């Protein structure tokens, strides 16, 4: 059984974390107030998405001769909508593409829980401004956690850090 979700420039597109640093969980919200999804992912996936968005936008700016100011827009909200999402999904893979002045984010996901659905695809078509804001928000959410060790890159807990690269 295959299932898919499509969103064209959704009103809701946010990167969010909940919990205390060291025990946070991360997710993307997307959709509209009445039909929205919560897509769970790891912090490393969110950091990689932010970096991929930056690289993608830089390549587009150079190719299309755009300036970053041309992709300014309204700020994305970090408010979680009330009510239950249409689906709770976990991200397996993300791809980014561009055509006809819109960015496409395609997510290969699986449904959390006992459901047995083989292929679940989420397609989001967003403006460059929305994509840029999502990247900025994702970086901000990731940076709000524990500081990183300058030697090994691992997180530093408030109780201390044993660095494998420090002898």
Characterize the structure shown:
The chain is an alpha/beta fold. The protein has one domain. The chain is about 25% helix and about 35% strand. It contains two helices and seven strands. It has helices at about 45-65, 130-145; strands at about 1-10, 10-20, 25-30, 35-40, 85-100, 100-110, 120-125. Strands 1-7-6-5-4-3-2 form a seven-stranded mixed β-sheet. Strand 6 (about 100-110) and strand 7 form a beta hairpin. It is globular, with a radius of gyration of 17 Å.
Question: Care to give the gist of this entry?
Answer:
With 167 residues, the protein is an alpha/beta fold. It has helices spanning 43-64, 128-143, and strands at 2-8, 12-18, 25-31, 36-41, 87-99, 102-111, 119-126.
Describe how the helices and strands are arranged:
Layout: E1 2-8, E2 12-18, E3 25-31, E4 36-41, H1 43-64, E5 87-99, E6 102-111, E7 119-126, H2 128-143
Parallel strand pairs: 1-7, 4-5
Antiparallel strand pairs: 2-3, 3-4, 5-6, 6-7
Helix pairs in contact: 1-2
């Amino acid at each position: 059984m295959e299932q898919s979700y499509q969103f064209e420039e959704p009103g809701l597109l946010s990167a969010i974390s909940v919990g205390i640093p060291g025990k946070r969980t991360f997710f993307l919200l997307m959709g509209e107030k009445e039909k929205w999804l919560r897509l769970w992912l790891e912090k490393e996936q969110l950091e990689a998405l932010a970096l991929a968005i930056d690289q993608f936008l830089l390549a587009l700016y150079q190719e299309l001769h755009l300036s970053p100011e041309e992709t300014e827009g309204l700020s994305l909200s970090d408010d979680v909508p009330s009510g239950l999402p249409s689906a709770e999904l976990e991200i397996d893979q993300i791809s980014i593409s561009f055509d006809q002045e819109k960015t496409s984010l395609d997510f290969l996901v699986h449904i959390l829980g006992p459901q047995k659905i083989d292929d679940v695809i989420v397609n989001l078509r967003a403006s460059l401004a929305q994509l840029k804001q999502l990247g900025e928000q994702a970086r901000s959410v990731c940076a709000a956690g524990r500081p990183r060790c300058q030697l090994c890159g691992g997180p530093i807990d408030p109780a201390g850090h044993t660095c494998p690269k420090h002898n």
